[in-house]
Predict the 3D structure of the following.
Amino acid sequence: DIKKYKPWPKDPIMYGDDTFTLDIKKYFQKYLLPISEIQDKIDEVKKKFSDKMIGVHIRQSDQMDWIKVNHSAIQNKISGYIQKGYKVFLATDNPNVEKVYQKKFGESLISFQNPFGFYLDKFENNPIGVKNSVVDLYLLAECSHIMGTKGSSFSWCAWILSENSTFEIHS
C-alpha cells in the first residue's frame, strides 16, 4: 500500500505487514549491488565485525547540528548494546562525531578508516565522498540491528538494503 511508504521515517519502524516496503527491500537487496571496488572496501571493514553488530548512523553536518542530536541518549543505548556483547559500526558525516564516539567506545566501535582518497574525503560532498558514503551504507546494512537518524533517508536505505525486519530511530 503506497500510503504506508515512508522514505525518511521519524518513528520506530516495523514493516511486518507492509508488503509494499517489503517488496522494495526484496528488490533493492537483489538488484542494487555495489561495484567491485566498493565491495572490496566493504569486505575490508567487515573483517573487523563480530556476529553481534549494531550499526549507528548519525547524520550531523548538512541539516542537523550537534545540539539537536541527543548524543547522551545514543551513547547510553550503545553502551547497553556493548554490555550485551555487541560491537558497534558508526557511520557519520561529521569527523568530530566520529572522534568523540571513537574515544568513548574504543575498540568496541568500528568505523570506515581507509576510505577512497584521504581520510577527510569520506566526509565531503563530492564524487569521492559519495563513494565512501556508499561503503558506509552497505556496512550499516550488514549489521544485525540499525539505529538511524530521525528523518534520514540514508538510515532508511541502509535498513532497506539489510535483512533486518526493524530498525530504531534516534533523536
Remarks:
- The mean pLDDT is 85.
- The longest strand covers residues 53-58.
- The CA atoms of residues 31 and 158 lie 14 Å apart.
- The longest helix spans residues 127-141.
